[in-house]
Design goal:
Layout lengths: L11 E5 L28 H8 L10 E5 L3 H10 L6 E5 L5 H15 L4 E6 L2 E3 L2 H15 L4 E6 L10 E4 L7 E8 L4 H10 L2 E11 H11 L1 H12 L2 E3 L2 E3 L2 H5 L6 H6 L5 E6 L3 E3 L3 H7 L8 E9 L5 E12 L4 E5 L4 E5 L6 H10 L10 E4 L2 E9 L2 E8 L7 E3 L3 E9 L2 E5 L2 E5 L4 E4 L5 E4 L6 E9 L8 E4 L6
Parallel strand pairs: 1-2, 1-4, 2-3, 3-11, 6-12, 14-15, 15-16
Antiparallel strand pairs: 4-9, 5-13, 6-9, 7-8, 7-9, 8-12, 10-11, 16-17, 18-19, 19-20, 20-27, 21-28, 22-25, 22-27, 23-24, 23-26
Helix pairs in contact: 3-6, 3-7, 6-7
């Protein structure tokens, strides 16, 4: 929908796409984190978040703040649901939510000095979207008097994985002053909070006037605003992205909007919401919102169980089978099998950090590696050879490149490939192949309307991805 159809009074959603979702490893990894994964159904959490604010009578086109490594994933997923963002802001490094919010507020203020922002982490589940929309509408008026409106979720259990907000005036759905922010409690304290009735889960969703947010940041975290402003000045347009100045943004402290502003502000307010909200921060949370069978088991993908209770079993690529177990989480991808008790799933983060210190590839990326043009999967690797499956989406085009240490042989499985090999251009069809000798300048394109799938066989003494010399790239990668 064009900007002409947007209401001048509409709210500007800001979709915050940072974070790696480490506790949902091995499905969520640095290269493809949880916000871009379809945890339930066919749409990713990011797509669900974007659709939640797609009514142009109430919301303007969103500002999306995304990490450098995930910018093309975000573009592809938005295109798939026919949403055109107002701006895609690319963070050169992750600096938590405060710098991201500051950049979005500065950018939005340049377009409209009275802009109202709805800051939304892009990895949440909201089952009752009508209730959420009603809460946003109720909180909008308060922003006109300088209040920063948080959305406190009415707790349904003594959860220990969430931060809490204590209302100054508990009860009802009116906007209340925040009396206290509380970090994640221990089980006994969480039980007390649930019984008290005036504590709410902190959803991390914030409704605020851009001008007010910047004023509070200037007061409580001036270094954040200084770095954000400089990164916009040093930023540049790159294809459909607004790429922030790397050096300037890197000077921003890594701090959340909660710690930098909300916990210090005299204007923090909260509205109580019951909307089926969940922050999928651990596998136990995914189990809680899942479709449980009579024995309390949630089965996803290729999974089966017998004589088992209260388990989450997920098979991605291979079958997960469980017999006679309780309270277990088993998640299998093509390269990793995770097994843990539900009450230990918060410790997955420490395990992944250890794997990263040991430089284990599975801690960073999965077998499927996404690129702007599509993706590839490593099928087999041995001494001086590697076999990959490559999928190029319609219109996708790999960089014009060469290798110093390997030759390649491409076999088209289905689709049509347009191949540049030195001075020649060749059209390769299904069941046809082409050989690319070491050192030749080459490029692969998909000129068709369907995905192009091919098998690549590499041979040589060094087969790592850094043996790519890019000569030209339509995606402006280095």
């Amino acid at each position: 929908m064009s900007p002409r159809n947007e209401s001048k009074q509409a709210i500007t959603p800001v979709l915050l796409c940072g974070g790696t979702g480490t506790r949902l490893w091995p499905l969520s990894r640095d290269s493809y984190p949880k916000q871009f994964i379809a945890m339930q159904g066919e749409l990713s959490l990011f797509q669900q978040t974007a659709l939640r604010v797609s009514d142009r009578a109430s919301y303007r086109r969103p500002i999306v703040v995304v990490n450098e490594d995930h910018r093309f994933i975000a573009v592809d997923q938005l295109q798939a649901i026919d949403i055109a963002p107002a701006t895609l802001i690319v963070e050169p490094v992750g600096r938590n939510t405060a710098p991201a919010a500051a950049v979005a507020a500065l950018h939005a203020s340049e377009q409209d000095g009275d802009a109202k922002l709805l800051l939304m982490p892009a990895d949440h589940v909201i089952e009752d979207e009508a209730a959420f929309t009603a809460a946003v509408t109720s909180g909008l008026e308060a922003t006109g008097s300088g209040r920063i409106v948080l959305f406190g979720i009415e707790p349904s259990s003594p959860a220990t994985g969430y931060g809490y907000i204590r209302q100054e005036q508990p009860g009802g759905s009116a906007v209340s002053r925040v009396a206290e922010f509380v970090e994640k409690p221990d089980p006994v304290t969480a039980e007390r909070y649930l019984a008290a009735g005036d504590y709410l889960w902190n959803s991390g969703i914030v409704l605020v006037a851009a001008r007010q947010l910047l004023s509070e940041l200037e007061r409580h975290a001036p270094d954040v605003v200084t770095a954000a402003r400089a990164s916009l000045v040093d930023g540049e347009r790159d294809l459909d992205f607004l790429r922030l100045g790397a050096e300037a943004f890197g000077r921003a402290p890594s701090i959340s909007i909660d710690h930098s502003v909300l916990e210090k502000s005299d204007h923090a307010s909260v509205i109580r919401v019951r909307c089926g909200w969940a922050d999928l921060g651990a596998w136990s949370a995914v189990w809680e919102i899942g479709d449980q069978d009579a024995a309390g088991n949630v089965l996803a993908g290729q999974a089966v169980c017998d004589d088992s209770h209260n388990c989450y079993l997920r098979g991605e690529g291979i079958l997960v089978a469980a017999v006679g177990v309780e309270d277990m989480i088993v998640v299998a991808t093509e390269d990793v099998v995770l097994v843990t008790r539900k009450d230990s799933d918060q410790n997955i983060k420490q395990l992944v950090e250890r794997l990263k210190q040991e430089k284990h590839a599975a801690a960073f990326t999965s077998r499927r590696v996404h690129r702007p043009w599509g993706y590839y999967e490593s099928i087999q690797q041995g001494h001086r050879y590697q076999v990959k499956r490559i999928t190029v989406k319609p219109g996708g085009k790999l960089s014009l490149q060469k290798h110093f240490h390997r030759a390649e042989h491409w076999v088209v499985v289905n689709g049509t490939a347009l191949v540049t090999r030195d001075a020649e251009t060749v059209l390769i069809r299904e069941n046809e192949s082409i050989y690319l000798p070491l050192g030749c300048v080459h490029r692969l394109e998909n000129p068709g309307k369907l995905d192009l799938n091919l098998i690549e066989v590499q041979s040589g003494g060094y087969l790592a991805e850094d043996d790519i010399v890019r000569i030209e790239d339509v995606y402006d990668r280095v």
